[in-house]
Amino acid sequence: MVDDGLLYRVYERRLARELESFALPQHLGVIVDGNRRWAKEAGESTEHGHRAGAAKILELLSWCDGLDIPLVTVWMLSTDNLRRPPEELAALYGIIGSTIEGIIEAGYRVRLTGNPEALPESMRADISRAQERASLESRLTVNVAIGYGGREEIVDAVRELVRDLADQGRSGADIAEAISVDSIAEHLYTRGQPDPDLIIRTSGEQRLSGFLLWQSVHSEYWFCETYWPGFRRIDLLRALRDFCRRERRFGS
Predict the structure, then answer these.
(1) Catalytic, out of 3, 4, 33, 164
(2) How many domains is the chain built from?
(3) Which of helix, strand or coil describes residue 146?
(4) Is position 84 annotated in a ligand binding site?
(5) Is 142 helix (H, G, I), strand (E, B) or coil?
(6) 38 known member of a binding site
(7) Full residue range of the structural domain in which residue 94 is found
(8) So what's the pLDDT on residue 127?
(9) For residue 65, is it within any domain?
């Protein structure tokens, strides 16, 4: 009988070798979806599903680090998620905080992507203290998207831009003239970073749900049926292989 584990490892190595001749994404976005459904099908609690999903994020980052992908944005908590039951949110806040600690302990740089005002003050303080300990020399930067919504990000960017221009004493007409694609981009949560080349979404859902709406205009997408806690390195390699085989047209 053939060992399924052996076949898996052989296939995984073959995929990794295929990728050696390609340029991999410089910015990978991941919509981590399916924690609750995974837990339900396994007969476990919702909190257990979220903890399994958080552990998978740390695995993903180690895989990306090994592949020299320098920037990963992980969507952990949307603005819509903030309407979940208080007891689920309380557990989520603790899990997210522990995950950020784990990312920093792994030697990666953390950057928050989202509206911090949407989070409890104690959580914001804990994250801020954790960021102070983070290495600035890491090969991998991780954008942790919490309290994040794509529409909200664009609104926040435009508001900040208008306030900056108003502080300069600009007239209403001058402010309107100064609003451009570039000026808005300079006020996004991801300012100074390249747009995502590839965005992965798990759980079988094939929609953006507002993830990096502005930045994803030329992104490639890869959807898989697997719930996030069940995502494997071989799934990442398959997504990267598919990305590398595509002819990117950038809207042309």
Answers:
(1) 33
(2) 1
(3) strand
(4) yes
(5) strand
(6) yes
(7) 22-150+194-245
(8) 80
(9) yes
* 79 annotated binding-site participant: yes
Query: What residue type is assigned to position 139 of the chain?
Result: R
Rounded Cα distance, 144 and 147, in Å: 10
User: Catalytic residue at 115?
Assistant: no
Euclidean distance between CA atoms 113 and 142, whole angstroms: 9
CA distance 220 to 125: 35
CA distances from 102 to 106, 164, 207 (A): 6, 36, 29
Evaluate if residue 39 carries a pLDDT over 90: yes
Nearest to 85 by CA among 38, 50, 126, 122: 50
**Which of these is catalytic: 65, 68, 81, 167?**
81
Is residue 120 scored above 90 in pLDDT? Answer: no
Q: Which two tokens stand for residue 37?
A: 């459904």
Give the mean model confidence (pLDDT) for residues 203-226: 95
What's the one-letter identity of residue 166? A
Write down the pTM of the prediction.
0.92
Domain with 50 in it: what CATH number?
Answer: 3.40.1180.10
Does residue 232 fall inside a structural domain?
yes
Average pLDDT over residues 186-213: 96
Give a yes or no: residue 5 inside a domain: no
Q: Any catalytic annotation for residue 33?
A: yes
201 is in an annotated binding site: yes
